[in-house]
Design brief:
This protein has 18 helices and 2 strands. The protein has 415 residues and is mainly alpha-helical. The chain has a domain at 15-55 and 94-169 and 289-404: Na+/H+ antiporter like fold (Up-down Bundle), CATH 1.20.1530.10. Na(+)/H(+) antiporter that extrudes sodium in exchange for external protons. It is a multi-pass membrane protein.
């Protein structure tokens, strides 16, 4: 076995779900403490500090750079995971994927409906209906890794598939409902460049010559990716969509002479940066909610809608959707799992941190008080969901530790 250098060992550590989640949680805690400390003025000044070329309309605040720029790296990885699942994973077989897909849809629709039902008297607040739809993959998988050491592997696969479908839904919601005035020329050019990006992934013609070139591929791909991101941002579509699109265009098959696919290589290289920088900095810039008016937050139907949607809506939508699917179709629950496991996992899906905070920023950018209350609702709901899911999943993990988890062979025989 080849011993890894310090840099490679650190990178491998950062690729672990638990480590990524710890960094995300730590950054959020720092933001909360900082925003509610005597140094809160420095925190606000840092978030509002503007940097970037104004000629390209990129003179953005650090908070916006974190949400639009750094988060695009995270969404690139999400796009790559989606591509992997569609081509090689659970989403390749519609019948096997039906249960988590329907559960994910239920976990998006029910929270949104609960939010709307609690805000029907406030038409100006209804724009936040997308906030409780999203499940935070990084947080949820991190908590599952920490508390579910003895849980069946199929539960993580279920959660990952569900969260990926959930993120795809959230991405579509952002693109369709939370896009500002659309500028078609930069969007068209971005689509053309995305076509070039996809073509270069195919390994034919110019793409093959690029692979044979002595220049490293990143010399071409990085400027191209930056140009696509800038154009999508200029078009009015939220710039993180560029990351998703490029992730899904990555080639996932291995050509002759390659030891890994470009998709796997890019995801492997970028994940430590996403875990160590992109997600923590986004959390640091976005999670600084001032809780001095916490009483008024609980009186705000927006915050209540977010909390009820994430904590109750996710549980009802995911568990109910999965159960109804088994009753109304030929889909079956994986034989290594029980409905209690799915219930605990459904509660875990109520952690709506990264994408929920992003949608909050988009929905209430012009309403400061509502924005702070909605962010507070996301954080309190995520904390509540984490505690409840941890209690259930620790008990289930202890159960499987005592009685054993069915083997992969048993799972295959019964699938």
């Amino acid at each position: 076995m080849v011993k890894k250098t310090g840099v490679h060992a650190i990178a491998d550590t950062l690729r672990k779900d638990a480590v990524s989640g710890f960094l995300l949680i730590g950054a959020a805690v720092v933001a909360l403490l900082w925003a509610n400390s005597p140094l809160s003025g420095i925190y606000e000044s840092l978030r509002d500090f503007t940097v970037g070329p104004s000629s390209l309309h990129l003179d953005l605040s650090l908070e916006t750079w974190a949400a639009d720029g750094l988060l695009a790296v995270f969404f690139f990885i999400i796009g790559a995971e989606l591509k992997q699942e569609f081509v090689h994973g659970e989403l390749r077989n519609p019948r096997r994927a039906m249960l988590p897909i329907v559960a994910a849809i239920g976990g998006m629709v029910v929270p949104a409906l609960l939010f709307v039902s609690l805000n029907t008297a406030r038409p100006e607040a209804l724009s936040g209906w997308g906030i409780p739809m999203a499940t935070d993959i990084a947080f949820a998988l991190a908590i599952l890794a920490l508390v579910g050491r003895h849980l069946p592997p199929a539960l993580r696969t279920f959660l990952l598939t569900l969260a990926i479908v959930d993120d795809l839904g959230a991405i579509l919601v952002i693109a369709v409902f939370y896009t500002a005035d659309l500028s078609f020329l930069p969007l068209f050019i971005a689509l053309v460049l995305l076509g070039v990006f996809g073509y270069l992934q195919q390994g034919r013609g110019i793409a093959a010559a690029l692979d044979r070139s002595p220049l490293p591929n990143w010399v071409v791909y990085v400027p191209l990716a930056v140009a696509i991101w800038v154009l999508v941002h200029e078009s009015g579509v939220h710039a993180t969509i560029a990351g998703v699109a490029m992730g899904m265009l990555m080639r996932s098959n291995i050509n002759e002479g390659e030891y890994e696919s470009p998709l796997h290589h890019a995801e492997h290289m970028l994940r430590p940066w996403s875990s160590a920088l992109a997600l923590p900095i986004f959390a640091l810039m976005s999670a600084g909610v001032v809780f001095s008016g916490i009483g008024s937050m609980f009186a705000d139907s927006v915050a209540l809608g977010v909390m009820v949607g994430l904590v109750v809506g996710k549980l009802v939508g995911i568990l109910g959707g999965a159960w109804l699917t088994t009753k109304l179709t030929r889909a079956e629950l994986n034989p290594t799992l029980s409905w209690v496991d799915i219930g605990g996992m459904s509660m875990l899906a109520g952690i709506g941190f990264t994408v929920s905070l992003l949608i909050t920023e988009l929905a209430y950018s012009d309403a400061v008080t509502t924005l702070e209350h909605a962010k507070g609702g996301v954080l309190l709901a995520s904390f509540t969901a984490t505690i409840l899911a941890t209690i259930i999943l620790l008990q289930r993990s202890a159960h499987y530790r005592r009685h054993g988890v069915p083997t992969a062979e048993h799972e295959t025989e019964n699938s």
